[in-house]
Amino acid sequence: MSARKLAKTAYRALLIAFFALVIAHVALDLGHPVWWDFAPLVLAYAVLIVANRWGGAPDSARAARAPVEVEPPVTGRWIALNSPADHTPSHHTHAYGQTFAIDVVAEPEPGSRPPFRALWPVARRNADFPAHGAPLHAVADATVVRATDTARDHLRRGSLTVREGDRVHPGQVLAQVGNSGNSTEPHLHFQLMDGPDPDTARGIPFTWRAIGVPRNNEVFEVPARPVGARA
Question: Dihedral (C-alpha) 145, 150, 155, 158: value to the nearest 10 degrees?
Fold first, then answer.
């Protein structure tokens, strides 16, 4: 295990220990001082500081490099959010290879995406948003190194058409868009990394062929094209 991976694992273990101590202190009325419960939390952040200073700065951006040109992962009319064209890191962190990540939401026609309401409805169904269930396409010739669609929902559950080890080609449908993570609505989160492990990978800048990198709230449209077709 690399030093960077070990640091991430230790960080998570210490966070779990912190929450476990707090819960145990409240539930069991332990006699030790409350500040003891925060010792794992302090150690967790100490691990990150040490790892960043002497371990090759795992959450920092890689040295500047030319963007990698790939095909867009979607077709149709979409809107860009949290775009690296406006600032990097685009999601306010270099962690997990997100330096140059982008989010996109589908809006096939102007106004077809449900608007945000401050009071009602409090929540909407995933199916109310046109991004949910939209096809996700391969962006380059590549080999699948990890694929899972059992969670509800990351990719839409049960929608994967490929397995680990499969070779894929530009335009090939891989799965359908779902809704997960730090999300306010079904959308596609897209990023390129220099390795398959988010704990140790760094983000790579990208550009979509014939599209570029759309800015925040920019509408862009991608025509459908045959699987494997070349520009």
Answer: 100
CATH code that applies to domain 61-231:
2.70.70
Which is nearest to 8 in space by CA: 104, 103, 132, 95?
A: 95
Give pLDDT tens digits for 89-133.
Answer: 999 888 889 999 999 999 999 989 888 777 777 778 899 999 999
- In angstroms, the CA 3 to CA 134 distance is 39
| 187 token code pair | 């959308």
Q: Rounded to whole angstroms, how far apart are CA atoms 36 and 14?
A: 13
* CA dist., res. 114 & res. 148, Å (int): 28
